[in-house]
């Protein structure tokens, strides 16, 4: 299924604890420091339902046949790669190329990992299956992931 922007925004109102400069943010969808980014992602989700973009931003799930975000596609051909490239271009154009971590960014990374999930079976036979299951859950629920790139917070007095 492809989520709507409203479904995405509603999912952010789940009681999560977010702090900025020691202050708890009660609603990330309304706080002026975060609301713009949340609204932009919601608009990207809504584009998947817009007749002008749906065919370019979604494909049929190999598991259910329902529409899912094209950024989750595991390309099998040149045409698949070109199609995914067009989808990335549509998203980049919507954001004028300035929104650094759109949902398609991590979706494509997860699809790449899932497409080679068997390499995770070298030590634990079940781990590759877990990778594949996680990918399929993310794809079928149209979830958004992110990552963080910071040094681990450690007590430096102990080093």
The CATH architecture can be named as Orthogonal Bundle
Strand content: 5-15%
State the helix count: 6
Give the low-confidence spans. none
What does this entry look like structurally?
This protein is mainly alpha-helical. It has a single domain (5-146), classed as 4-hydroxybutyryl-coa dehydratase, domain 1 (Orthogonal Bundle). It is built from 6 helices and 4 strands. The strands form 2 sheets. It has a two-stranded antiparallel sheet with strand order 1-2. The protein has a two-stranded antiparallel sheet with strand order 3-4. α1 (5-12) runs antiparallel to α2 and α5 (103-115) packs antiparallel against α6. The N and C termini lie far apart (49 Å).
Keywords:
159 residues; 4-hydroxybutyryl-coa dehydratase, domain 1; 4 strands; globular
Task: Map the helices and strands.
Elements: H1 5-12, E1 18-20, E2 23-25, H2 35-47, H3 54-57, E3 58-60, E4 67-69, H4 78-94, H5 103-115, H6 127-141
Antiparallel strand pairs: 1-2, 3-4
Helix pairs in contact: 1-2, 5-6
């Amino acid at each position: 299924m492809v989520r709507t922007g409203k479904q995405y925004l509603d999912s952010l109102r789940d009681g999560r604890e977010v702090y900025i400069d020691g202050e708890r943010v009660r609603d990330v969808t309304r706080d002026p420091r975060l609301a713009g980014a949340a609204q932009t992602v919601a608009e990207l989700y809504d584009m998947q339902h817009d007749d002008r973009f749906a065919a370019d931003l979604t494909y049929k799930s190999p598991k259910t046949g329902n529409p899912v975000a094209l950024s989750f596609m595991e390309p099998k051909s040149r045409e698949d790669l070109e199609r995914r490239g067009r989808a990335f271009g549509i998203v980049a154009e919507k954001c004028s190329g300035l929104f650094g971590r759109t949902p398609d960014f991590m979706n494509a990374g997860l699809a790449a990992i899932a497409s080679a999930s068997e390499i995770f079976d070298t030590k634990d036979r079940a781990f590759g299956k877990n990778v594949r299951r996680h990918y399929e859950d993310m794809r079928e629920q149209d979830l958004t992931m992110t990552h963080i790139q910071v040094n681990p917070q450690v007590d430096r007095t102990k080093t």
